[in-house]
Amino acid sequence: MSHHYLDVRDLRYVYPDGTEALKGLSFRLEHGEAVGLVGANGAGKSTMLLALTGLVLPSGGAVDVGGTLLSKKTVDAVRRRIGFVFQDSEDQLFMPTVFDDVAFGPLNQELSESEVRRRVADSLARVGAEHLADRPIHRLSGGEKRAVAIATVLAMLPDILIMDEPGSGLDPYGRRLLIRLLCEFRHTRLIATHDLDMVLDVCPRTIILHEGKIAADGPTRQIFADTSLLESCRLEAPFGMKRTE
Amino acid sequence: MPHSIDKNIADLVNASGEALGSSPIHKLDPRAKSIVVLLFVAAVTSFGKYEVSRLMPFVFYPVAITALSGVRAGTVVKRTLLAAPFILLVGLFNPLFDREPLLRIGSFVVTGGWLSFLSIMLRAFFAVSGAVLLVLTTRFDHLCLGLEKMGVPQVFVTQLQFLYRYIGLLAGEAQRMLRAHDLRSGKNDRKISLSTYAPMLGTMLLRALDRATRIHRSMLSRGFDGEVRLLQPLSFKSTTDGLFILVWGGFFLMCRFVNLPELLFFAVTGR
Q: Inter-chain contact B222–A153, Cβ cutoff 8 Å?
């Protein structure tokens, strides 16, 4: 049986000031599935991603990552299985050079030096950034930073990839490269984004989050064709759908 | 006219570019360079307060390193001069308080205060130029790694690394905020009033804290447990790195304990 699934049941999160950000979310991601997570600003996407990785501890409900139930005790094990790509690559890349940054995760797993080197080389090659290994982070372009940020996560060999706005700040060419890369991955993927066209290209399934609840969960094309649903969730049909109409 | 912050960011980027050079000095182990700079600073600062002439031979060190490393002399001088206001402040009162005449050249009298002022200036500029050259010829990550391998506690080294990594970002945020201020200040005079300055600083602090939280989360999600592990080889080669320390250490010792300017004077005048 595959352990690359993510099962979320009645997930709740209340901010310390009493604001209810997540109001009982339930869904399941199967092995290798690519799911788009869309929703207006403040719908709860970022909070949900943080709660899935235990970066904020849920106020209620259960997160089952491949058979491990998320709790304070299992949080390290859960984080080893989930690769989280942050919205701002500047937050993700904190080490002095590309090599150090990609090696950060594997070194924390206390792997041998040769294994760490192999993983760094493989992950950088996977995102086409081998040539950047020795570069200081602050001398990379936006697209290069994004590629390296993804490599830092791949180096930990996660079962599940969670991405927060992976396309933000990329030029059209960089965005296209990213879409191609995301399509090639065989990981279980959850991609939170406002770029509905990217979702259309990468994710056969979409979850719409609205005011802390799941407003819809189903095949992407079917959901994006429902204009009244999109409008009620302060979303708009992607251009890709408009062209085919 | 752009804010000086623009220029400072450009300078920072240029400095990290200089450090990526490939001269023989750049290739030395950061530990060897750090030790030599420490020896240099120790030697220069160990002289008596009225000493000026015996400090002169030490100028050979920054000049030689600048020449060998291919770093632009102008860059070294400019960066060293950044410390000038602080150095001036330290020595400023010496000429006022110490008025004892020590030297007469014809009718011109030099007081102890002026001599010690000159001595402080020389020593400080030499020491700062040594540090500036170290930073300009060493990749910052290697420098940090060298410090760590020499026994500097990791918490300090990590802080240095993070400071270096994020100072550009912080400066960028300040710059954008200042531009936004300028565009809406409606005056030619873009001086920021205190009542605006305080909330601006507060906003910057809050943003920095937010970013720190996000970075910490990103570290946690990649298995951070309080220790930053690095996988970078530093190889201390006794032939080059050891020789570098020996030659310069020997030179500093000689300058410290042998009065070279006096010997030179005797040699030239034949007395």
A: yes
B170 lies in some domain? no
Query: Closest-CA residue in chain B for A158?
Result: B222
Which of A84, A85, A90, A119 has the most B C-beta neighbours within 10 Å, making it the best mutation to test the interface with B? A90
Structural domains of chain B, count: 1
Alpha helices (runs of H) in chain A, residue ranges in sequence order: 45-52, 75-81, 89-92, 98-108, 113-126, 142-154, 172-184, 196-202, 220-225, 227-232, 239-244
Domain that holds residue B141: 4-152+238-261
Most distant CA atoms of chain A, gap in Å? 55
Q: Give the integer Cα–Cα distance in Å for B92 and B98.
A: 11
- Of the candidates A55, A96, A107, the beta carbon closest to that of B231 is on A107
Q: Quick check: A163 contacting B, CB < 8 Å?
A: no
Domains defined for chain A, CATH in brackets: 6-244 (3.40.50.300)
| Token digits of residue B223 | 């298995």
Other Cβ atoms within 10 Å of B112 Cβ, number: 18
**Cβ contacts of B213 on chain A, cutoff 8 Å:** none
Q: Is residue B59 part of a domain?
A: yes
Q: Taking a C-beta distance cutoff of 8 angstroms, is the pair B47, B55 a contact?
A: yes
Instruction: Print pLDDT tens along chain A (245 aa).
Output: 567 899 999 999 999 999 999 999 999 999 999 999 999 998 999 999 999 999 998 999 999 999 999 999 999 899 989 999 999 998 999 888 899 999 999 999 889 999 999 999 999 999 999 999 988 888 899 889 999 999 999 999 999 999 999 998 889 998 999 999 999 999 999 999 999 999 999 999 999 999 999 999 999 999 999 999 999 999 999 988 876 55
In a domain, B204, yes or no: no
ipTM for the complex shown? 0.83
In a domain, B232, yes or no: no
Count interface pairs A-B at CB distance under 8 A.
Answer: 85
Q: Is B223 within 8 Å of A50 when comparing Cβ atoms? A: no
Per the CB < 8 Å rule, is A84 touching B218? yes
Contacts of B164 in chain A (CB under 8 A): 96
